[in-house]
Amino acid sequence: MHKFTIRRWIQLLLVGGLCLGTLATSGAVSQEEPASPPETGLSLSQEVKTGAAAPEPAAGPSVEEPAAQTPEQALQAAKEAESRRRRASGLLARYGLTREQRETLSARMGADAALFQKLEGGELSRAELAWLGLPNARPDRLDRYDAWMEAHPEDSRENAVLQVNIDQDQPFYSLIWETADPDSLSVLVNKHYTLPAGYVPELEALGKGYGSGSLRPEAAQAFRAMADAAKKDGIALRSVSAYRSYKTQNSTYNRYLKQYRQATVDTFSARPGHSEHQTGLALDINVASTRAHFERTPAFAWLKEHCAEYGFILRYDQGKETLTGYRFEPWHYRYVGEEAAQAIMDQGITFEEYLALRPALGG
Fold it and tell me: Considering all CA atoms of the chain, what is the largest pairwise distance in Å, rounded to the nearest integer?
């Protein structure tokens, strides 16, 4: 796994924005055309017996959107935050931290009253504060950061936080969180985060001329705009698989289990509840099979260059298999909004990395 320089790391933080989206879980592969198994399987963690009960999801770490405030309430909150920031700055002086760490920590304490109370009560050690001095470090993962550094003593603290935030310290499908906000455009869909049971998003049919299926309204509108722009350049883009229900994903996954070992299936199909298609924000474009070699087509080249302009990202890129848990899928695109999509595609990073690098603020 590559390491980020401090400068590039901070640039990514700034590009990513300050509001942290809530996390969840994802998947791949269209139901229309069975995908061929990969030529070489990924080294994935524990296999589970077919039909075995899935692990009980835990409450996922998230940062809630702030409630709407009146101008007076907002002003009072800002004053209180500034007061905490100043008091935290004085308290932090005794810990022998760098100026950059103190500035980051003071800002975090200003934004998070609970974290400030821990500092004021002497509940945070210097080692913990050193971790929290990194903007994207999460208070609920401090022990895991320590464990990563113990196992990888040559690593940087920045990379340790990145890896743990991506859950690279946990085998796939072992530690599972349930997202608190599946309607967020930043909902993370992978092998560590699951959608709530029975979740069904608001949907809008893509319509005649745009292929099959439905997406969430904002994603459907963006896809139609993207397809129209591509058409002007002589490129045809059509959906072959968009929103997929839990029931459909369950059938799809179990069908593959009858053909391949579970360790192989898990490299190209999501377990039910973990499929990105269930969010209504993802779709397969034109094909959904490695045999089609979509990556060699003009349509793929156009998408790589222009998809971010419409808020879409190539979700499972080549060379990112150990991060996403899925093989290269040149046809699978996810709507995340234009700002996030531009940052992800410009930097050549995964959605997991993008979210892992965003400031955690207080929590």
Answer: 66
Give me the sheet containing 177-178, strands edge to edge: 58-59, 177-178, 193-194
3-class DSSP state for residue 107? helix
Residues in the chain: 363
To the query of whether residue 329 is one of the catalytic residues in this protein, the response is yes
pLDDT tens digits for range 24-66? 333 444 443 444 444 333 333 333 333 334 445 555 554 445 5
3-class SS at 125? Answer: coil
Domain boundaries, the chain: 6-59+179-357, 71-165
Q: Among the options 321, 329, 352, 353, which is catalytic?
A: 329
Structural domain 6-59+179-357, CATH architecture: 2-Layer Sandwich (3.30)
Cα 323 from chain centroid (whole Å): 11
49 or 73: whose pLDDT is higher?
73
List Cα–Cα distances, 262 to 22, 23, 162, 249, 335, in angstroms.
29, 25, 28, 15, 28
